[in-house]
Design brief:
The protein has eleven helices and seven strands. The protein has 247 residues and is of the alpha/beta class. The protein has one domain (39-246): 3-Layer(aba) Sandwich (Rossmann fold). Helix 6 links the parallel strand 4 and strand 5. It is globular and about 50 Å long. The structure holds S-adenosylmethionine. S-adenosylmethionine binds next to helix 4 and strand 2.
Length: 247
Amino acid sequence: MGTFVGSFFRPSKMPPSPAETPENETNPQTQDQLSLNPWEAAYLRFESPEEEIRKFIRRLTRLGAPQWPRDAEIVELFCGRGNGLLALQRLGFTRLEGVDLSPRLLAQFKGSAKCTVADCRRLPFADRSKDVLIVQGGLHHLPSLPDDLDQTFSEMQRVLRTNGRVMFVEPWRTPFLTFVHFISEISPVRRISSKMDAFATMTEYELRTYEQWLGQPELIKKMARAHFLPVHESFAWGKWNFVGTPR
Ligand SMILES: C[S@@+](CC[C@H](N)C(=O)[O-])C[C@H]1O[C@@H](n2cnc3c(N)ncnc32)[C@H](O)[C@@H]1O
């Protein structure tokens, strides 16, 4: 796998990505746990909550969510600060849950969905208990491919009802993504655009898992198809969009 983001981009001392940061689910959140790490701080300033909710509504609509029953039991995995859940809420869905490894990001969520601090490689749900599982920008944080991806997909298969749905939207190395990275590495661009600076900062801090993800497209597609039957798959604007049913 070649280096995708230029080496001058790499910070001298790189902290672990969120999935590599151990969390203690049973301890109450201390003030220290609630102070954001640099990746989390950049993620929060990349888009305003309203911009992000509108983006998620457009995406969910394009990928067919309006056709799902409004009382479907939906879980957003790797939900971060939960704006995907707020988008689903605005689309009229009522039975929503979120899962994320970061108590600091979940603490930002102000909606009504039940959110749980957990590792998506071991989902805290019963077999065949959910109708829809959504992942937007979480799989590329998994520390070890292919094992973690296989484990996460197996867990999703276990938890989904037989007629359930999965939806993944993850980064993909299209010409657009290459262009955006090229632009975001230009220092004056980072100085004038806080969005580009946040994007470049997130990339720096998640570089190892991000490059691992972008460098194995065939393996990822094969693994997704081994667990889920695709209903829709597209690659556009730097994203892989996959909607499927469990096999
Ligand atoms: C790029 S963010 C995406 C957040 C949200 N889906 C969005 O689009 O705004 C990735 C999220 O994955 C979470 N995460 C990373 N590894 C995880 C794991 N193994 N289990 C659960 N969440 C994880 C991080 O805490 C972070 O909130």
